[in-house]
Specification:
heterodimer; A: alpha/beta; 18% strand; B: 129 residues; 3 helices; disordered C terminus
């Protein structure tokens, strides 16, 4: 599944304000709720599920990237959002570097293949240093969306 | 995937069986090969991939996971996502270096474990009635 098929365009955050792991996750889930992608009643549960997942091991996979994620029964298909943290967030990453690019993925229960395909596509783009640099320089939701869809076209 | 599925010209020839390491002597250094079948119910997703990357960093060895013509550095989580390795997928491990034996054993343990310690990842919330 392509990145633009699960990323909710209206939930993209070009300049995340939060500075801690928990507050960034809350801001991202809140943005998905505000965009109508998740129900308000599920918001707190999803935040808790993502934080619980982080306790098992950080999803900060190095090179300034984190992929916070969880599964939730209220969803019928994977959804997600992207946030850029210009100043970096301490995510206890694999390489101990601050995180600047966050890709959140929330999947329905028991759809592991789609989850893997979403991660595959995110990775294809994020392995490109130029893509990451442009992403971090993006100032608007539209710019980030353009980059995401353009990267897919180049695959 | 059958045990002899690597017959195309791109894939390295294979003369071993899954679960058994094969030592090949090359001109520079010996290279260990072993095929494994991914056992985790959710496949090689982020948590086992992170476990593999952390283990790979602990050894003085270069380890690569191979599926068809896709090669993933075992130290790169993002590389490993590109393998799209679901449960039951067969992966070839190629390890070289002074600590290749230890690295291979550690990676095989992680990749073939049906669950990781404290697993149950993501199954954090039962459906509500």
């Amino acid at each position: 599944m392509r990145t633009s098929e699960f990323v909710v365009r209206d939930a993209i955050i070009p300049g995340v304000e939060a500075t801690t792991k928990e507050s960034v996750i809350r801001e991202m889930v809140g943005s998905l709720r505000a965009a109508g992608a998740i129900k308000a009643a599920a918001e707190e549960e999803i935040v808790k599920a993502i934080l619980k997942r982080e306790q098992l091991g950080s999803t900060g996979i190095g090179r300034g990237v984190a992929i916070p994620h969880a599964k939730h029964p209220s969803l019928s298909q994977p959804i997600g959002t992207v946030a850029i943290a210009k100043n970096g967030v301490n995510f206890n990453s694999l390489d101990n570097e601050p995180v600047h690019i966050l890709v959140m993925l929330i999947s329905p229960q028991d759809r592991p293949s789609e989850h893997l395909r979403a991660l595959e596509n995110v990775s294809k783009s994020l392995r490109d240093d130029t893509f990451c640099r442009f992403l971090r320089q993006s100032g608007t939701r539209e710019e980030i969306w353009e980059l995401l869809t353009e990267a897919e076209g180049n695959k | 995937m059958g045990s002899k599925a690597n017959g195309d010209s791109l894939a390295p020839s294979w003369d071993g069986e899954p679960g058994r390491p094969v030592l090949r002597s090359g001109p520079e250094a010996s290279v260990l090969h072993q095929r494994v079948v991914i056992q985790h119910p959710d496949g090689l997703h982020l948590r086992p991939a992170v476990a593999v990357a952390q283990a790979a960093h602990r050894f003085d060895a270069e380890a690569v996971l191979i599926r068809g013509d896709v090669r993933a550095n075992a130290r790169s989580v993002m590389d490993m996502f590109l393998l799209l390795a679901e449960r039951g997928t067969e992966i070839e491990l190629e390890v070289r270096g002074p600590e290749a034996n230890g690295a291979l054993a550690a990676l095989v343990d992680i990749l073939t474990a049906p669950t990781l310690p404290e697993a149950d990842e993501d199954r954090t919330l039962p459906p509500k009635g």
